[in-house]
Specification:
Elements: H1 3-18, H2 23-41, H3 44-48, H4 54-64, H5 69-80, H6 87-102, E1 104-111, H7 117-131, E2 134-141, E3 149-153, E4 156-159, H8 162-173
Helix pairs in contact: 1-6, 2-6, 4-5
């Protein structure tokens, strides 16, 4: 995504988020936008097809999002501005803004085998202390790590995997 589109997505997300005065309202709106993106995913080709009129696209949005008129209006605005293709990025950024409001820090934790519930909780607790906030981690099994963990959080990578340790050892031995 080029910088112009990235900035536009940020601005649309900030504007959408600014409509919410409370955390609860922000959470509801974020959820509605995610649901709208999912509901419209099946019509992606039609929504981005220049041969289909703007009016037909707007009708499809209103029909698909009959229960969420504010979200439908927002998506119609994207259609008017010829920026509908930014919807996935806008949705991602709205979710990130919601996390900020709620004080949630997202992390991805890769492990060689599935971690127990206790291990997952311990990992989240350690990360919460390190980053100074409530960390919600997504745990992913990656057998190629051999053992240990590989963590991505706030743009930082912590590689405590056995594979990484073995690679470093091999590097040291071949110097």
């Amino acid at each position: 995504m080029n910088s112009t589109n990235r900035i536009a997505a940020q601005r649309y997300a900030a504007a959408y988020d600014a409509l919410s005065k409370t955390k609860e309202e922000a959470s509801r709106r974020s959820s509605l936008l995610r649901e709208a993106q999912t509901a419209l995913a099946a019509q992606q080709e039609a929504m981005t097809n220049p041969r289909i009129s703007l009016q037909l696209k707007k009708e499809a949005v209103r029909e698909a999002l009959a229960g969420a008129p504010e979200t439908a209006s927002f998506i119609e605005l994207l259609l008017d501005a010829k920026r509908y293709y930014l919807l996935p990025e806008i949705t991602r950024r709205v979710d990130a803004l919601l996390d900020e409001r709620l004080g949630i820090i997202r992390a991805q934790v890769y492990a060689a085998k599935e971690l127990t519930t206790t291990q997952q909780k311990q990992t989240q607790d350690v990360l919460s202390k390190r980053y100074g906030g409530q960390v919600e981690a997504e745990f992913i099994t990656s057998p190629g790590l051999l053992g240990g963990l590989k963590i991505f959080c706030r743009g930082e990578q912590i590689d405590g995997s056995l594979k990484n340790k073995l690679e470093k050892l091999q590097e040291e031995l071949t110097k």
